[in-house]
Amino acid sequence: MSRSIRRLQKKVQKRLKTIPRPAVLVVAFVVVGLTLLVISQAATPTSSVELETGARANGASEQGNSTASGGKAVRFGVNTPAPATGKFYVVGKHIVDPDGNIFLPMGANVGMRQAPYLENNYLFNYFGTANDKSEQVRAWGWNTIRPNINCAPSGSPSAAETLAGLDQLVAEYTAKKLVVMITCRVTVGTDYAYSSSTVQASLPMIKTIAQKYKNNPYVWMNTFNEPIVNQPAWTSLNQSLYNDVRALAPDMIFVADLAGLGNQIETIADGNLATTFGAGKCNVIYDWHAYGFINGYGTDATHQQYINRVASKNIALVVGEFGDPIKDDGSPLRATDPTVPGVAGNPDQNRIGANAVMSYGPAAGYGLIWWIATGDSNQGIVYSLTKDKSSPWTVTTGNAATKLAPAGKRFWDLSRQSHNLGRFNGNIADSGCASAQ
User: Fold this and answer.
1) Is there a contact between 352 and 303 (Cβ–Cβ < 8 Å)?
2) Residue 237 CB: number of other CB atoms within 10 A?
3) Closest CA to 242 of 182, 282, 275
4) Which residues pair with 404 in a beta bridge?
């Protein structure tokens, strides 16, 4: 016990002799309390509990302590908000924006202007392209678009025309801090090897994009849309693509579509893909296309379980595609209806998946990107946000209740909620990026 505490006790004891006996007990309790308070404040606050792996919240750090179980204890400090870095970083499941806030992507897939004369009738632009539509995008409450582009054009449009359209789109959107998550289109339903002619034909544009926008944090690279069916082919392709992007853009967000045409959330929820592929990598996000298929046909409850399972493993994920297909009269498209081109498998399962990710995705910290705002073919749209299959850019607060399809209205309401998840309080260095060390 320190001398200051002993002097305090002696002074109190002298005073007690002059205080009436009923009050002595009260003062004694005060003395004991003050003594315990001083002693506890002088001690090092440790506890013999183990730290979880992954991002450490609440300023927790590991301390050596011979009296604790296993010789280690946890010391709790004060949360330190992440500084503004001017870059995006992925730390565990969190996407940290350039201002140091936790970022929740919300938006839609769109067509992009690949030449001025192809504003319609070319690559998902039934309603035109997303060029010159950033204010309509913001009116929806979206902060992210996923432009689907042909990265291996031959003839018309040319690569130069495509890059000119992309330049205009990037300049327009990123100036307003809207993310442009670029994905190159390939014919789906096969396993592409890195050496395949299809991949090699797109590589020059992928590398040009990485080099050109490496210092623009609001440009993300989702190298290929649904390039793999079977998991064994996935790692080899994505490792090579990751290396290509990283060689030119050390910090650019790298988004990888999951296997099974993007559907196989099992590979990260049940399997160890995020460890075998993701360990030591900088700024990797997995892209799940949630059309209702989890180990076959997934129920609402299955979707909730798998979303929570991925979150519990501290894995960064975005739902890069989901949607609810409807018929021309605005009613739900059913599996019993005639087959409609452009529908991702069983439409009833698509509906289950769409409603499930809207219920559970944002609550678990995972953002949603609707398929598709501008037309899922060049001549029409099945995954329409509006029930009369008109352009989503005509939706306003005044007509949303009557104009939107049921899932579209739900996504409108969800998108326009506040997605401010607050400051990131972890350690940016845990991103694994060299620039954050």
Assistant:
1) yes
2) 22
3) 282
4) 386
Rounded CA-CA distance 240/222 in Å is 14
Task: Return the closest-CA partner of residue 114 out of 153, 72, 67, 65.
Answer: 153
H helical segments located in 87-196? 134-139, 159-174
How many Å apart are CA 437 and CA 435, to the nearest integer?
Answer: 6
As a whole number of angstroms, the distance between CA 245 and CA 232 comes to 22
At residue 252, the pLDDT reads 98
**CA–CA gap between residue 193 and residue 392 (Å, rounded):** 37
CA proximity to 103, closest of 315, 314, 318: 318
Say whether 132 sits in a helix, a strand or coil.
coil
Residues paired with 278 in a beta bridge: none
Contact 113, 164 (CB under 8 A): no
How far CA 170 is from CA of 131, 143, 264, 274, 318, in Å, comes to: 9, 13, 30, 30, 20
Q: What is the distance between the alpha carbons of residues 9 and 348, in angstroms, rounded to a whole number? A: 77
Cβ 166 vs Cβ 173: under 8 Å: no
Number of helices (H) and strands (E) in the chain: give both, helices first.
12, 13
What pTM was estimated for this model as a whole? Answer: 0.83
- The span from the CA of 204 to the CA of 192, in Å, is 17
Average pLDDT per consecutive 10 residues, the chain (437 residues; last block may be shorter): 52 50 42 41 42 44 47 52 95 98 98 96 96 98 98 95 98 98 96 98 98 98 98 97 98 98 97 94 98 97 98 98 97 96 96 98 98 94 97 97 98 94 96 96
pLDDT at residue 314, rounded to an integer? 97
Residue 26 pLDDT? 39
DSSP single-letter state for residue 364 = G
Provide the 3-class DSSP secondary structure of residue 303: helix
Query: What gap in Å lies between CA 194 and CA 66, rounded to an integer?
Result: 52
Q: What distance in Å separates the CA atoms of residue 136 and residue 140, rounded to the nearest whole number?
A: 7
